[in-house]
Amino acid sequence: MTEATMQMKERSEAIGRAQRALKALGEHPRSSKKELGHAREHLNACYSHGSGKYVWNAVAQVEAMAERRYGVPSTEEHRQLVDAAGDLEEPATAARGRAAEDRAIAPATSGPDDVGLAPTASR
């Protein structure tokens, strides 16, 4: 087997990624039949070509189409946003989660009125 030929596991991973991107693209209400057909051609290329480079390029094409449709920034755009915003070490959702934990009700402790009676079986 040559170096350019993909292993079955790698091809399966690539096809799975392309299928997920195509499914997401198909679920978007503004996707056209032409766009979906073009994305499907890229997915079909994943099945028909033996070159790993060609298959991963086809996957990247389908994923890029879905990203553009959903408005996901490219890697470079994302990097620019992060640089402009400063250090985004902690996402806002993590901060909100910790704040919710802080507001959680403290565990009940036994008070002076608690005499420690155990429940009895009903008759």
Task: Walk me through the structure.
- The protein is mainly alpha-helical.
- It has a domain at 8-77.
- The protein is built from five helices and no strands.
- The chain has helices at residues 8-27, 33-48, 52-70, 75-85, 92-103.
- Helix 2 (33-48) runs antiparallel to helix 3.
- It is extended and about 75 Å long.
- The model has no long low-confidence stretch (mean pLDDT 77).
Helix and strand run: HHHHH
SS content category: mainly alpha
Radius of gyration: 26 Å
For the terminal residues, how far apart are their CA atoms?
77 Å
Question: What layout of secondary structure does this protein have?
Answer:
Elements: H1 8-27, H2 33-48, H3 52-70, H4 75-85, H5 92-103
List keywords for this structure.
single chain; 123 residues; mainly alpha
Compact summary:
The protein has about 120 residues and is an all-alpha fold.
